[in-house]
Write a structure and sequence with these properties.
The protein has 333 residues and is of the alpha/beta class. It is built from 13 helices and 11 strands. The protein has helices at 3-12, 19-26, 53-69, 84-91, 106-113, 149-158, 173-185, 197-206, 216-224, 248-251, 272-286, 289-296, 307-328; strands spanning 42-46, 73-77, 99-104, 125-134, 136-140, 164-167, 190-193, 211-215, 229-233, 261-267, 300-305. Strands 2-1-3-10-4-11 form a 6-stranded mixed beta sheet, with helices on both faces. The radius of gyration is 24 Å and the shape is globular. The termini are far apart.
Length: 333
Amino acid sequence: MNETGRLENSLRYLPFSILPFAFCLGLAAAPACGQSFPSRLIRIVVPLPPGGSNDLLARIAAERLTAGLGQPAVVDNRPGASGNIGTEFVARSAPDGHTLLMANTAHVINPSLFAKLPYDPIRDFAPVALMSSVQFVLVTHPSVPARSVKEFIAVAKTRPGALTFASAGNGAPHHLAMELLKSMAHVELTHVPYKGAGQFVPALVTGEVSSVIGALNSLLPHVQAARLRALGIAGNRRTPLLPDVPTIAEAALPGFALDNWGGLLAPVGTPRSTIDRLYGEIAKALRDPQTAERLAGQGIEVTLAAPDEFQVLMKTNMAKWAKVVKAAGIKLE
């Protein structure tokens, strides 16, 4: 009997229960038998400190993925270098769906700010889901003698450089939004960068810094308590959370608009089946009226979009903000 015959004869007498195991051993070039997504903990990296809108979105995503996929999903805050530390970590992670990035508009702004990045924001990532649009609002400390956008601009013109504004770091959406205001209003303001909303909001409340164009969710409680004053909505429409506050465009600067989105990305090469499964779970969460209500209460609007549409948005935004960065002359090392 030849070798093939002996092998067939041996397999004939193997217990049925171990035949699948024997089959797996024979697939040396294939993935481990029975291995599927997800097979372990899922990490959602937020490249910013806790406390901002991205952090809230990541926690909602983690809750949904934990419930829907049968594996724990956790939020991992990795701030620093204008979001580049956490973003690079995800770009270099295995493309298996277990490490994800909660990105915002800064993701497509950074290529215009840095001469060299350790990743490409488009080529190195696979979009999973556009999740939200975050309302930004111009607020000031009550010590600033302005109750409207026009008055804020007037004060800035009479006191060039005296008014300060906060941001979540050089080149962050807060920074570029105020640079856009400066260029359109022809005023001088002094930039004071912080590491994130968790740091600059207390500085605003104490008067350490004069103003910010920041995410409504982190500023609204202080506006409602009269610790901060809201002057103008940075987006292209008003918010029901502050119905009497006009947009910056209608109040003083026609054409002014800041689009700050939040969305989930995976490392490039992640299987499309995994992307589709992740998108399906995120879509379930965002279509839940309770989730939408929870986000709306923080000034965050659900703007669910599938991977291909999200990709188009990122490319369009990257071109838009490249023009603002160039006009402002901002460059980071």
